Amino acid sequence: MEVYVDDMLVKSKKAPDHVKDLEETFSILRKYKLKLNPGKYAFGVQRGRFLGFMVTQRGIEANPSKIKDIQDMKAPSSINEVQRLTGRMPPSVALYLNLRRKVSLSSKC
């Protein structure tokens, strides 16, 4: 289980373990008298938005609605333009790009 302020994600390596992981999560929530907003949770989804990213069975992907402007813009042609671009990016985009770089590097090793 991963918790981010008021968002939570329960994930399991194997599908049969997921029910057990959910039971454990709900047990912890009950123990501390924490409540969930029924309008915000979903079960058994193949993909969904979480913290501005699309989370799928393959991992974290960029949310298409968040990166459309970046995809449509002209590519920077100088170091100054690259610096200006990265300075204007929200932290979530910078995090995504950094994650992609790490995945790319580790997959080559």
List keywords for this structure.
about 110 residues, elongated, alpha+beta, single chain
Structural commentary:
The strands form two sheets. A three-stranded antiparallel β-sheet has the order 3-4-5. A two-stranded antiparallel sheet has the order 1-2. Helix content is 50%, strand content 17%. It is of the alpha+beta class and 109 residues long. It is elongated. It folds into two domains: 44 residues, no CATH class; 56 residues, no CATH class.
Number of strands: 5
Distance between the termini: 29 Å
Secondary-structure content class: alpha+beta
Question: What would the principal axes of the Cα set say about the shape?
Answer: elongated
- Strand composition percent: 15-25%
Kindly report the average pLDDT value: 77
Integer-rounded radius of gyration: 18 Å
DSSP helical segment count = 4
Unreliable spans: 102-109
Biggest β-sheet: strands ordered side by side in the sheet: 3-4-5
Order of helices and strands: EEHEEEHHH
Please tell me the total number of domains. Answer: 2
Largest sheet, described in full?
3 strands, antiparallel
Residues in helices, as a percent range: 40-55%
